[in-house]
Write a structure and sequence with these properties.
Blueprint (H helix, E strand, L loop, with lengths): L1 H24 L14 H13 L33 H10 L14 H8 L6 H15 L4
Helix pairs in contact: 2-5, 3-5, 4-5
Length: about 140
């Protein structure tokens, strides 16, 4: 009986370990290198383009490794009755969203990351998010 329980426990542990290893296999790491806080394009290319693509349509080189495809960032205004959702974009950058990719290992919430980049200047985070949002606005398809 103990052998049977030990075998079941060992098998369960092995399955859990394999499952965990499988989850980390597709991990995407995007380095948060320091960029110019006034250059929305540079920040987009460094932080967003690996998944969302240089053109913003969700076909970046790291997109294949994600569980769900990245959002087409060029359609934000079109999907919001023609108005760019600036406050929503700022909220997603700061806090994430209910979409499982945002705020997870797949898509970091950039607000806290931006906050840690320059603790001496607390306004830099807001400057970064604002300029990144403005750049996303410039990418909208008419």
């Amino acid at each position: 009986m103990r052998k049977h329980l030990s075998l079941v426990a060992f098998t369960a542990g092995l399955l859990l370990a394999v499952g965990y290893a499988d989850q980390t296999k597709n991990r995407v790491t995007i380095p948060a290198n320091k960029t110019n806080p006034t250059d929305g394009r540079q920040m987009y290319n460094s932080y967003c383009a690996p998944c969302h693509g240089v053109d913003g349509r969700g076909r970046g080189p790291a997109a294949q490794a994600l569980k769900s495809p990245p959002v087409d960032l060029t359609a934000l205004a079109r999907n919001n009755r023609g108005k760019y959702p600036d406050s929503h974009v700022m909220a997603v950058l700061q806090f994430g969203t209910e979409i499982s990719a945002h705020g997870s290992e797949q898509m970091p919430v950039w607000g806290p990351i931006f906050s840690r980049m320059n603790v001496a200047n607390s306004q830099e985070k807001d400057l970064r998010m604002s300029n990144l949002s403005r750049y996303l606005q410039s990418m909208q398809v008419k």
